[in-house]
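User: Can you help me understand a structure? I only have the sequence.
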Amino acid sequence: MKINWLWDTTLNKVRVKKILHNERDPRFYIYAEKLFSRVDDPKEAFSYVSKEAFCRQWPVVRKRIAKDAWARERAGFWQGIYEQTLSIPPERLSVAQRIKELRVHMGYTQKEMAKRLGVIQQYVSRLEAGRENLTLDTLKRIAQVFDKDLIVQLN
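Assistant: Let's start by predicting it. Here is the structure, written out as tokens:
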């Protein structure tokens, strides 16, 4: 059973979402601290706070979480998400998401795809997370695994 992360507040999720969409709201840090110390699902968290706002406000929120011994370990998790979010260009994330979509559509596991590429499964995991800077040669090999054409376009 999933526990409501707003268990100790009288505001509902709609009102909290409105607060977290406005970084200038004086209550922003109160609810951001609750969110990031209680939620361990980035998809859920980013439905309340945009990734851009998270990146701008994380240093302050992290300091607030670090003061709470119970929540301190969550700061490490979100610090990793913060570093990942800052360092991955959106274009690379877009390509990574497309590779994962194709792999899942073809019914391959990461291990099966890795075998077809001649790499280890962890490399495929890094590809799909956008943590690998792909070369055109690698993209061509990936396209061949999926029996797709590779089209590179500069706009």
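Now, to help you interpret it: The mean pLDDT is 92. The radius of gyration is 19 Å. Let me know which part you'd like to focus on.
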